[in-house]
Write a structure and sequence with these properties.
single chain; mainly alpha; 79% helix; elongated
Length: 135
């Protein structure tokens, strides 16, 4: 069984993404104005967070039920987090001239948070993941 701390990291990841996705989608019009982002960009950010939470949340549920995720599943999680860091950096770079300071800070801090999760998951969750079963 995966240690409690490793499971807690998975729960933090899945829960944070779910909350972010739901809040951003529910408030997308107001956030688009506040961030000075195109509404489609805000919808994209919310939808990606919600979709990602389905994956990370599934891993958290499985780990909590004694079904330790495989290393491959954790590697996918880490790579997805790192990819989102790159997307956040691109959003900041591409909207720096038009977005509000709040919008840039929000996306930049989200990127930092997700990057820290990637490091935590690689260091504190992956070592307890199981090897894939032979085919």
């Amino acid at each position: 069984m995966m240690p409690r701390r490793a499971r807690a990291i998975l729960w933090l990841d899945g829960s944070a993404a779910c909350v972010a996705g739901v809040v951003v989608l529910a408030l997308h019009d107001a956030l688009a104005r506040l961030h000075a982002f195109p509404p489609a960009l805000v919808l994209f950010i919310g939808a990606v967070n919600l979709a990602y939470s389905c994956y990370s949340g599934t891993l958290a549920v499985r780990a909590s039920r004694g079904r330790t995720p495989t290393r491959r599943a954790i590697d996918i999680l880490v790579v997805a987090n790192l990819a989102w860091v790159a997307v956040c950096a691109a959003i900041v770079a591409l909207t720096a001239g038009t977005a509000s300071l709040f919008g840039l800070a929000h996306v930049g801090l989200e990127g930092l948070f997700v990057g820290m999760l990637a490091v935590l998951e690689y260091r504190r969750v992956r070592p307890f993941a199981r090897s894939p079963e032979p085919a």
